[in-house]
């Protein structure tokens, strides 16, 4: 259930330089196209890349679809995020588990896998980490993120966000 005030969504991966900034840029872009006012942010469970812009491969792949990421900067998830955001959406199960470990019990229902929202558009529940792979990994990340964003926007529209 998504609350009725201005909805806020936090997208989370490990480094906050590949998957979650891509999801941040894509979801924000698609929400704007749909005319929905939703606050979107992203963060990493790890701190290695705090303050850095997205990986240039992620930025280049997103730009090929008309979406800019270079203004984003990595930050680490903080406890306050669980209170501030209606949804805290993890890119994979490792990150979901790490979020659940630190999430105050009253906010656990806000923490989910992002790809749950893709429904039957895709057959995967995790966005694979593209960091150590080739450029096609970044294209797959975008395809999965587009599917989840579409499903999430449909749900927000149904709920009158
Ligand atoms: P992300 O990708 O979690 O999608 O941002 C990664 C970025 C960096 C590392 C791992 C994954 N790293 O090990 O530094």
Automatic annotation (TrEMBL):
Record-linked InterPro entries = LMW_PTPase, Ptyr_pPase, Ptyr_pPase_sf, Tyr_phospatase_low_mol_wt
Group of enzyme by EC: hydrolase
Q: What SUPFAM superfamilies does the annotation carry?
A: Phosphotyrosine protein phosphatases I
Q: Which organism is it from?
A: Marinobacterium aestuariivivens
Phosphotyrosine protein phosphatase I domain spans which residues? Answer: 7-155
The organism's superkingdom is given as Bacteria
Q: Which family does it belong to?
A: Belongs to the low molecular weight phosphotyrosine protein phosphatase family.
Q: What is its EC number?
A: 3.1.3.48
Protein name stated in the entry: protein-tyrosine-phosphatase
Q: Which UniProt keywords apply?
A: Hydrolase, Protein phosphatase
Q: Which GO terms describe its molecular function?
A: protein tyrosine phosphatase activity
């Amino acid at each position: 259930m998504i609350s009725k005030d201005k909805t806020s969504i936090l997208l989370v991966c490990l480094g906050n330089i590949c998957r979650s900034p891509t999801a941040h840029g894509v979801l924000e872009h698609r929400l704007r196209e749909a005319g929905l006012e939703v606050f979107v942010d992203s963060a990493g469970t790890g701190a290695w890349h705090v303050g850095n812009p997205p990986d240039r491969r992620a930025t280049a792949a997103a730009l090929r679809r008309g979406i800019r990421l270079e203004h984003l900067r990595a930050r680490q998830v903080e406890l306050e995020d669980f209170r501030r955001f209606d949804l805290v959406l993890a890119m994979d199960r490792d990150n979901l588990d790490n979020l659940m470990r630190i999430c105050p019990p009253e906010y656990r229902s806000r923490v989910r896998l992002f790809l749950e929202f893709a429904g039957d558009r895709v057959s995967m529940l995790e966005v694979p980490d593209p960091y150590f792979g080739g450029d096609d990994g970044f294209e797959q990340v975008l395809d999965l993120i587009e599917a989840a964003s579409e499903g999430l926007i449909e749900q927000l529209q149904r709920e009158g966000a």
